[in-house]
Write a structure and sequence with these properties.
It is found in: Nucleus. InterPro entries: Ankyrin_rpt, Ankyrin_rpt-contain_sf, Ig-like_fold, Ig_E-set, IQ_motif_EF-hand-BS, P-loop_NTPase. By secondary structure, this protein is of the alpha+beta class. It has helices at residues 2-22, 28-43, 180-208, 217-230, 235-246, 252-277, 292-299, 303-311, 325-331, 335-344, 364-370, 374-393, 402-413, 420-461, 464-498, 502-547, 570-574, 579-600, 606-625, and strands at 86-92, 95-97, 102-110, 123-126, 129-137, 140-145, 151-158, 169-174. The chain has an eight-stranded mixed β-sheet. α3 runs parallel beside α6 (252-277), α3 (180-208) packs antiparallel against α7 and α13 packs antiparallel against α14. The termini are far apart.
Length: 626
């Protein structure tokens, strides 16, 4: 009897393994069809929890939301709002070899309102891999995962290949020494180590190879004032390094890195003091066009920022391509370096030199987004917009918006008892409000400047009375546009507060469309009625007085066009601004719109929201240290 049961178990296991081999790699069409079925069924299923009242709609009458790309791969179909469908109670094993196929069992159950989805096809996401599941029984699934890069990855269940329906857990791939996959990844690590070593060698060559010149006594006196600030006692750092070297658990590689960093730090202090005493205005560049601050930014040496700030050298010093230290840190995703630079006063709104790919240059946010750092790009875009507006507020005639400053203060004080996900959403909303407010104020300032230039051009090109009338009309139009824009903003805010769900919003759109049609019909009726009265009156005057009484031609002999001397040159007003200013303004407006879109990207991906929050905390910590 026991032998028979064992034979049945072996046959059943072999059949299941055959099914796993056949369904290990699902087709993309299966994923898409399954995603469509799941989205259709879930629209009819209630989700636990209320929809947040402050989640922005995809349409906005302000014009800034039109840049939201619905085809973004990170956005996807917003299937689940705040709830989970499947609860994972246990899974085994918790790790797998990075070079072998491993069988994983997951045990759990569906929530009550989602039990009708138990027969759906389930997929498991292990890092970047999507693996189909075999259902052993209801609530028990088996996965066959393949080789993967060693390290910890996120693991969760999904129905469409991208949206989690369960908790996001950790799964570990452990490397096997001497394996083929490890040997394939080793060249990548060696390449990064090689590039880092090259940067360290360039920095060392730039610091140690200097020209010794005689220094004037006056410069020595000035240099002695900052020597106490630049030069610091390295005794504590040497003691810490000695402890690391003597620790049995520490590695010699880390000790060597710390030793090299400490030597470069001490030499950089002396080198900066020599530049200050020598009366140099900048730090200079090496043969490849980068300066010490750019190399330190690439290497992530945050301690160098304080030295450059104390020395009086600009943190926005550009290399041969127009990149600042903040551009380098953003391009390589150095969050701590970006936080240190921002807290020290680096300008996040500067652009690089124009290239064939980017004729208008790139901001640090553009470079971070190009490398995939969405949260970092959103934070830099927000800071770039606010910094640009604050610099414009210092000029004459620009009004500062107090609402943005208040929002920034509430941003860090108000939400203490919320969960991490709710806090990330609140911070994303506050970031978008700050960015949208700054962008709208900047564009309003640009429009005011254009109005002033057009007014000046009209006053110079036309007679006094005629120019006064044209300028008055332009000012009335400008005031009406501003009033209409404010009214639209208030209406948009009111609409966003009352019409959140798609059904109510659809009814509102239909009602608004019908109201507009009724208003248009009524206005047309009024215009036609008044027009008929005017035509009748003019006809009576023409026939009774001009033709019959005066024996003249009537209104048929009057010319339709205006006299040549009364024509107004509208082109002069529209082309009053210089061509280069129009081009630069267009590029600036494109950058502002891109910056707002960077901040909008926070709503598309939870990973970007966590990255933004991590960047904000790092900036606050760096500002506290400063």
């Amino acid at each position: 009897m026991t032998r028979t049961l064992q034979q049945v178990h072996v046959n059943h296991a072999g059949a299941l393994e055959h099914q796993v081999d056949q369904s290990q790699y699902p087709l993309t069409s299966d994923l898409d069809s399954q995603s469509h079925q799941f989205a259709t069924s879930l629209r009819k299923t209630p989700v636990d929890g209320d929809i947040p009242n402050d989640v922005p709609a995809r349409e906005n009458s302000l014009g800034l939301w039109k840049y939201l790309d619905d085809d973004s791969p990170c956005l996807g179909d917003n299937i689940v709002s705040n709830g989970k469908i499947f609860n994972i109670t246990d899974f085994s094993p918790e790790w797998a070899c990075s070079t072998e196929h491993t069988k994983i069992l997951v045990i759990g159950d569906y929530y009550e309102q989602y039990k009708h989805l138990a027969g759906s096809n389930i997929y498991g996401i292990f890092g970047d891999n999507c693996v189909a599941a075999n259902m052993v029984q209801t609530g028990v699934y088996r996965f066959m995962v393949g080789p993967h890069t060693a390290g910890r990855v996120d693991f969760y269940l999904t129905l469409d290949g991208k949206t989690p329906i369960s908790e996001v857990l950790n799964f570990e791939y452990r490397s096997v020494p001497g394996s083929s996959l490890h040997s394939e990844l080793k060249p990548l690590e060696d390449e990064y180590t090689k590039s880092k070593l090259q940067m360290q060698m360039r920095l060392a060559r730039l610091l140690f190879v200097t020209n010794k010149k005689k220094i004037a006594p006056k410069l020595l006196v000035e240099g002695s004032k900052v020597s106490n600030l630049i030069l610091a006692s390295p005794e504590k750092e040497w003691m810490d390094l000695w402890k690391i070297a003597g620790d049995s658990e520490g590695t010699s590689v880390h000790a060597t890195e710390d030793l090299l960093e400490l030597v470069l730090r001490n030499r950089l202090q002396e080198w900066l003091l020599e530049r200050v005493i020598g009366g140099h205005k900048s730090t200079g560049r090496d043969d490849l066009g980068q300066g010490p601050i750019h190399l330190c930014s690439f290497l992530g040496y945050t301690w160098a920022i304080r030295l450059f700030s104390v020395s009086g050298f600009s943190l926005d010093f550009r290399d041969s391509s127009g990149w600042t230290a903040l551009h380098w840190a953003a391009y390589h995703g150095r969050e701590k370096m970006v936080a240190a630079l921002l807290s020290a006063g680096a300008n996040p709104s500067l652009v690089t030199d124009p290239t064939a790919v980017s004729p208008g240059g790139c901001t640090p946010a553009d470079l971070a987004a190009r490398q995939g750092y969405v949260g970092l790009a959103a934070y830099l875009a927000e800071k770039g917009l606010t910094a640009h507006f604050e610099s414009m507020s210092l000029s004459k005639g620009t009004k500062q918006s107090p609402s943005r400053t208040k929002l920034t203060k509430v941003h860090s004080e108000k939400f203490e008892n919320l969960t991490e996900q709710e806090l990330c959403l609140k911070e994303s909303l506050a970031a978008y409000r700050n960015a949208a407010d700054a962008a709208s104020n900047i564009q309003a300032a640009l429009r005011d400047r254009t109005l002033k230039l057009q007014t000046k051009a009209i006053l110079l090109a036309n007679p006094e009375m005629q120019a006064t009338a044209i300028v008055a009309a332009m000012r009335i139009q400008h005031a009406f546009r501003n009033y209409n824009r404010k009214k639209e903003m208030r209406a948009a805010a009111r609409i966003q507060n009352h019409f959140r769900t798609w059904k109510v919003r659809r009814n509102f759109k239909n009602m608004r469309r019908q109201a507009i049609r009724i208003q248009a019909a009524y206005r047309g009726h009024q215009v036609r009625r008044q027009y008929r009265k005017v035509i009748w009156s003019v006809g009576v005057v023409e026939k009774a007085i001009l033709r019959w009484r005066k024996k003249r031609k009537g209104l048929r002999g009057i010319a339709n066009g205006m006299p040549a001397e009364m024509t107004v040159d509208v082109e002069a007003a529209s082309t009053a601004e210089e061509g280069f200013f129009q081009a630069s303004r267009q590029q600036a407006e494109d950058r502002f719109n891109r910056s707002v879109v960077r901040v909008q990207a926070l709503f598309r991906c939870h990973r970007a929201q966590h990255e933004y929050r991590r960047m904000r905390i790092a900036h606050e910590e760096a500002a506290g240290v400063q």
